Amino acid sequence: MKKKAIATALVLTMTLGVGALAGCSTERAGYAGNDDIPPGAAPLMPPTHVGRADSLGAAGCYGCHGANDQANPMLNGATALPDDHYKDGDVGSKQIEPTREQCITCHPQG
Span of the secretion signal (predicted)? Predict the structure, then answer.
């Protein structure tokens, strides 16, 4: 019985992990909607991200764009968060700076 429970938990964890990564878009922030954005301004979220900020919050953005144990922007083709989006400007902290947790404030829907 214990082996079955462990196997079930493992399968569920793997399924949820794959589901989380499936939600990551391969479209880069450099899509045409950002052509008129001035240098230094935050890029718009691409149309494929409609509603994600509302339903997933910063954790959803961090899942594809952050540096954590479950996600790596280099693996899914997502634009990585800049250093200043992390606590104390340190990517190694793997924690979002609290003032950056409302992604949609600076990155409105394109």
Answer: 1-22
Model confidence pLDDT, tens digit, residues 69-105:
666 666 667 788 889 999 999 988 888 899 988 888 8
Q: Which helix (H) or strand (E) holds 80?
A: none
Residue 109: CB partners within 8 Å, gap ≥ 6?
44, 45, 47, 49, 50, 53
The CA distance from 73 to 71, in Å, is 7
Tokens representing residue 86 in the block:
């992390």
Query: In sequence order, which ranges of 23-98 are alpha helices (DSSP H)?
Result: 52-65, 73-76
What's the token pair of residue 104? 């949609």
5-14 per-position pLDDT tens digit: 666 666 555 5
Buried b / exposed e along 45-54 (16+ C-beta atoms within 10 A): bbeebeebbe
